[in-house]
Amino acid sequence: MAEQPPVASRIRRTLSAYRRHSWIFAGSGVAMWVLAVVVLWAAGFPDDGFVSGLATFLMGIGLVALVVGLGALAFSLRMVRYVHRYPTQLLPVRQSFDSLGGSPILALGDDGQHPLFLVAMRQRWDLFTSLDQVLFCGRPDRRGVIATQDGQNIIWSRGPRGGARHRNWLARKVARLNAQPSADPAHPAGGRVADFWGGDQ
Predict the structure, then answer these.
(1) DSSP string across 64-91
(2) Which H or E run includes 169?
(3) Helix count (H) and strand count (E) of the chain?
(4) More confident residue, 116 or 3
(5) CB 137 within 8 A of CB 108
(6) What does pTM read for this prediction?
(7) Which residues contact 15 (CB under 8 A, 6 or more apart)?
(8) d(CA 201, CA 192)
(9) 135 DSSP 8-state letter
(10) Which pLDDT value is given to residue 68?
(11) Which residue ranges does UniProt annotate as crossing the membrane (predicted)?
């Protein structure tokens, strides 16, 4: 089911803010490098001493900020590309796995309208495991953008590693867990966090 335009626009605004912060990080890194060069130039490019140490410190911090900013910028541009290329769907959360030694996994769909598919997440995954529904833009079982329904929280996701055999094993595990009664009547189908190798937590 395609989501309404206001939600998609909120996702784009969140991504715009993410991209703006990325530029700020990258710009701060460049500014620190320029400041370090100015400090060294004003001091006559000394070989050692306080000024040299300060300039080295500024260059180090600037390099970290530049790498983080450029990495976040590339990440945000990839998410923007997927949001523009694929429709935004509102999908039910069937299960969430707290993977031991791997990325947490959400099982989405399988509600009679959407086929079941699995996504592995990284940062801030705990914001999504207690939800009954999430927004998804991307290629099922491949990669895409997951967002809360208000469009304020966005993360990148990908299909779980291990190939078709591993995905089939995970799908069977989801079916077994969905057949079990939920401890929370408010979340009969989704919103349950399961240990990757065991049962519900």
Answers:
(1) HHHHHHHHHHHHHHHHHHHHHHS--EEE
(2) helix 163-179
(3) 3, 7
(4) 116
(5) no
(6) 0.65
(7) 76, 79, 80, 83, 154
(8) 8
(9) E
(10) 92
(11) 21-44, 50-75
Retrieve residue 57's tokens: 């410190």
Q: Which of 7-16, 61-70, 176-185 has the highest mean pLDDT?
A: 61-70
Which residues 6+ apart lie within 8 Å of 154 measured at CB?
11, 14, 15, 18, 79, 145, 146, 147
Q: What's the pLDDT at 151? A: 79
Q: What is the pLDDT of residues 28-84, one digit of tens each?
A: 999 999 998 888 888 777 777 788 888 888 899 999 999 999 998 998 888 888 888
What is the total residue count of the chain? 201
Residues with Cβ within 8 Å of residue 129, at least 6 apart in sequence: 93, 96, 98, 104, 106, 191, 193
Q: What is the pLDDT of residue 122?
A: 62
Q: How far apart are CA 116 and CA 131, in angstroms?
A: 16
Other Cβ atoms less than 10 A from the Cβ of 156: the count is: 18
Q: What is the dihedral of CA 126, 129, 133, 138, to 10 degrees?
A: 70
Query: What type of residue is 5?
Result: P
Q: How confident is the model at residue 193 (pLDDT cuts 50, 70, 90)?
A: very low
